[in-house]
Amino acid sequence: MVTIRSTGGRVAAYAWLVFAALNLADLLFGITGDASYTPMTFGIGVLLLLGSGIAYAVGLRPAILGDDDAVTIRNPLRDVRAPWAAVRRIEGTNAVKVRFTGPDGAETESRAWVHQTSPRAQAKAEARARKEASEQQEFDLRGRTPAAYAAQQLNEIRDRRRPRTRSGAPDRAAAAKEAADDSARGTVTWSVPALAALGVPLALLVVVAIVGAVS
C-alpha cells in the first residue's frame, strides 16, 4: 500500500493544533491570568476551533492512497475512490490527476490536493531535472517532482494489478476486457468529519455574532 501526504501541510496543521489547544486551555482555566467567560472569549474560542477545523481539513486529511483494490484521493471536503479496473489514466504534472469511470458511467477526472504546484514551479522543476539529466547523461524525469513521483508509484501498482500471460507480459485481451467492464466505477463522496469540523464552529460563530448583536 502507498500513502502519499504533504509533510509541510501536516507539520503546519499540528503546529496550529498545539497553539489552539494551549490558547483554549488558557481561556478555560486562566493559566496566564484570570479566566473570564464572556461573549468575546467565547468568540475567540470558536475562532480557534474553526482554525483547527481548517487545519484538519486542509493539512491532515488530504492524502493519496493506493492499495491492491483501488486508488483513493482524500481532498479537504471530498473522497474519491476508483477501483483499478475503472482507472483510465494517472498523470503527475502540476498535480496528481486520476481519470476514471465515474459513478454515472461517464469518464471523469479528479485532481488531488496533495502535491499541487503552480505551472511556473513545475516548469522550474523540470528545467532543473533536465540540467541534472544532461550532466549525468540521462534523461528520466520520473520522480523529479513530488506529483510525478506520486503518479509513478500509483501507475506501478496499477501495472501490477493488470492480468499477465505466462511469459510475464501484460495480457492485452484481458486488460481490454477489464477496461470495458462497466461495473467498475469510482465513487465521489463528501467527508462528514471534515464538514462537521468546519460546519460546527461556523454555526457557533453565527450564534456568537447574534448574541453579541442582541446584547
Automatic annotation (TrEMBL):
<keyword id="KW-0472">Membrane</keyword>
<feature type="region of interest" description="Disordered">
    <location>
        <begin position="160"/>
        <end position="186"/>
    </location>
</feature>
<feature type="transmembrane region" description="Helical">
    <location>
        <begin position="194"/>
        <end position="214"/>
    </location>
</feature>
<feature type="transmembrane region" description="Helical">
    <location>
        <begin position="37"/>
        <end position="58"/>
    </location>
</feature>
<protein>
    <submittedName>
        <fullName>PH domain-containing protein</fullName>
    </submittedName>
</protein>
<feature type="domain" description="Low molecular weight protein antigen 6 PH">
    <location>
        <begin position="67"/>
        <end position="130"/>
    </location>
</feature>
<keyword id="KW-0812">Transmembrane</keyword>
<feature type="compositionally biased region" description="Basic and acidic residues">
    <location>
        <begin position="174"/>
        <end position="184"/>
    </location>
</feature>
<feature type="transmembrane region" description="Helical">
    <location>
        <begin position="12"/>
        <end position="31"/>
    </location>
</feature>
<dbReference type="InterPro" id="IPR019692">
    <property type="entry name" value="CFP-6_PH"/>
</dbReference>
<keyword id="KW-1133">Transmembrane helix</keyword>
<dbReference type="Pfam" id="PF10756">
    <property type="entry name" value="bPH_6"/>
</dbReference>
